[in-house]
Design goal:
Elements: H1 10-15, H2 21-36, E1 42-43, H3 55-67, H4 70-74, H5 83-97, E2 106-109, H6 111-123, E3 129-133, H7 140-145, E4 150-154, H8 165-171, E5 176-182, H9 194-211, E6 216-220, E7 243-248, E8 261-265, H10 272-286, H11 293-300, H12 310-325, E9 338-339, H13 348-356, E10 360-361, E11 363-364, E12 374-377, H14 382-399
Parallel strand pairs: 1-10, 3-4, 3-5, 5-6, 6-7
Antiparallel strand pairs: 2-8, 7-8, 9-12, 11-12
Helix pairs in contact: 3-11, 5-11, 6-10, 12-14
Length: about 400
């Protein structure tokens, strides 16, 4: 091999220099845990569901493994997903949200990431634009940009983290093919109100007519079931006919490692059924085809069940009360397991680096499109949240005594 060299794809080589700050901090927390015990590291970095899987889901998996044949459980499913599963997903959505889906409007996918990968390619080609709103999940950048489309980010409206409509309308062009929303939102925890979604639909209808081309709404919904104060999250497809819903069971059932979700295309969209079939063709190019048959069958029997999500609301209240008492500016989350305060100095990276001295692992929000803020993923044991408050108070009182 002397004198030989390998030409690697440069865009992926370049990405090695831009490793996810979330993953980097999570790895730091793991390493620090080996030194002092992970129970003593207050790791708020990674949004990994912490509550147990529902007993019913485990029982379903056991029953399926005992009663079904190996080909049905472990063989390839049909390219669009198991028909009976797709029909049950449609039935559940209709019952919950007053929709009129059939199984022909559902495509089974490998989690929300797989669902989004299909949605982007359904509506946008190379050079087309997809707009999202800050703060946003940083992985939207590679998700969209590596599809060939271009992600455009609307600046945040920090008073409430609803949509900055003035800035949004200025960013829409004839190349805008879709708008990407995430509600409840990662990282802010904010739920888009019915008023916000109604206005968003009005803008999209008006701009679609102006440019003579339909702008789609892609709704990323993995946190849909995690809502606080007894409120329900408005179902985005109820507000706009050209909505593509992308769902994952990762958070609702606490099964992120199983990589199971779906695409649901609003039946009011004229080409909805055709678009689902197109998803099967998109899979041929991106390798997200045929999610595990066992998982498809298992979630189909547990569509209206969740893990004990109340833990997240308890954790949120503990953190929100302490943060605001310490003088942080923070919009109260309406769902998810994230809280998004403003740092106590302009440079959130410097702020989060100082927090590490107190074994508080916080994520600066520069990559979320909202410099000066930080994210805490409180999907950890409540007992650990309570102990972290002592470290949080010590951190603030020591580093920012004149706040």
């Amino acid at each position: 091999m002397e004198g030989k060299y390998i030409m690697l794809v440069q865009k992926y080589v370049d990405m090695l220099q831009g490793k996810s700050v979330i993953r980097t901090l999570s790895e730091f927390a793991t390493a620090r845990g080996k030194e002092i015990g992970y129970e003593n590291v207050f790791d708020y970095s990674l949004g990994n569901p912490s509550v147990p899987v529902p007993r019913e889901f485990t029982d379903t998996c056991v029953k399926l493994l005992q009663e079904k044949g190996p080909m049905e459980l472990h063989g390839y499913s049909q390219s669009l997903g198991i028909p009976s599963v797709r029909a049950k997903v449609a039935e559940s959505l209709n019952k919950r949200f007053g929709m009129n889906y059939t199984g022909d409007h559902i495509f089974m996918a490998s989690g929300a990431a797989g669902a989004l990968a299909h949605a982007f390619r359904l509506v946008a080609e190379a050079g087309d634009e997809i707009i999202t709103f800050a703060p946003f999940f940083p992985e939207y950048n590679p998700y969209v940009n590596l599809s060939g489309a271009v992600l455009k980010v609307v600046p945040p409206q920090t008073k409430d983290f609803q949509i900055n409509f003035e800035a949004f309308e200025e960013m829409i062009t004839e190349r805008t093919k879709a708008v990407l929303v995430n509600t409840p939102n990662n990282p802010s925890g904010i739920v888009y109100s019915a008023e916000t979604l109604t206005k968003l639909a009005e803008v999209l209808n008006r701009k679609s007519e102006e440019f003579g081309d339909q702008i789609f709404l892609i709704s990323d919904e993995p946190y849909r079931e995690i809502a606080f104060d007894g409120k329900e999250v408005p179902y985005v497809s109820k507000f706009y006919d050209y909505t593509i819903s992308c769902y994952s069971f990762s958070k609702s059932l606490s099964i992120p490692g199983e990589r199971i979700g779906y695409v649901a295309i609003n039946p009011a969209c004229p080409d909805a059924e055709k678009m689902v079939v197109m998803c099967g063709q998109i899979s041929r190019g991106i390798g997200h085809n045929c999610p595990a048959s066992l998982m498809q069958l298992a979630v189909a029997e547990n569509l209206d069940k969740t893990a004990d999500l109340s833990v997240y609301e308890k954790n949120m209240n503990l953190l929100y009360d302490e943060l605001t008492a310490l003088g942080f500016t923070c919009v109260r989350p309406g769902g998810t397991f994230y809280i998004f305060p403003k740092a106590l100095e302009e440079d959130a990276v410097a702020f989060c680096n100082k927090a590490l001295k107190y074994d508080l692992v916080l994520v600066p929000a520069d990559s979320f499109g909202c410099p000066g803020y930080f994210r805490m993923a409180y999907c950890i044991d409540t007992e650990k949240v309570e102990r972290s408050l002592v470290a949080l108070r010590k951190f603030v009182e020591t580093e920012y005594p004149s706040r």
